Amino acid sequence: MVQVEEGLVATVFLNDPERRNPLSPEMVAGLLEALDRLEANPGVRAVVLTGRGKAFSAGADLAFLERVTELGAEENYRHSLSLMRLFHRLYTYPKPTVAAVNGPAVAGGAGLATACDLVVMDEEARLGYTEVKIGFVAALVSVILVRAVGEKAAKDLLLTGRLVGAEEAKALGLVNRIAPLGKALEEAKALAEEVAKNAPTSLRLTKELLLSLPGMGLEDGFRLAALANAWVRETGDLREGIRAFFEKRPPRF
Fold first, then answer.
1. Shortest CA distance to 209 belongs to which of 99, 94, 132?
2. Same domain, 178 and 233
3. Is residue 251 part of a domain?
4. pLDDT per residue over 32-58, tens digit each?
5. Is 131 a catalytic residue?
6. Do 114 and 169 fall within a single domain?
7. Residues 66 and 133 in one domain
8. Structural domain span for residue 83
9. Which of 26, 75, 124, 131 is the catalytic position?
10. What value does the mean pLDDT take over residues 111-130?
């Protein structure tokens, strides 16, 4: 269900193209396992997430979805928790993540892309949180979507369940870059490589700050930022960066 190509920039493929890469329980488990393995590998500096075939991810597994109303409260809650762990894991992942939206990203698939740090979207792809159209609710992604686009835009997307194209997704702040047809993965890898050249300590700390600051008051936010500013001054990455600057060479992080 999940394939991984490791390297300085690792690529994780949702690999169920015949079914448009649904977030089946097996897919969710495979993604969590891959993320754990890549975090533990110090040679991996960034992760690209994409889908095999013509879709990024069509969201829920239809075969599983047919059974959810009969599973019972405990099993449904267990499944919800596994999805929650995946979205939370991606959103709080210590290494930079880039979604390469190579085709439709629908419902949970749209949520998966939203949970990544950066998103590159094919110019002809479509993205949408369509859960309300079948009586479901985009509960988990709403936690991060409202942070990404604000309350009014989140309500528009979640209450209508409409699909948006790449240009509108970029205007809303859901997408960072639009790729020419068929080039989403290539451009996502290039973006991830650009990010991966930077100091790992700085990248991790920047991500931690951006996670913490939205829920903090102004004074607490500045105090946390001051602590981060002071702490990073004692790191090996900063010493190497300063040395490389004065020696007029690329840093070796």
1. 94
2. no
3. no
4. 999 999 999 999 999 999 999 999 999
5. yes
6. yes
7. yes
8. 2-196
9. 131
10. 98
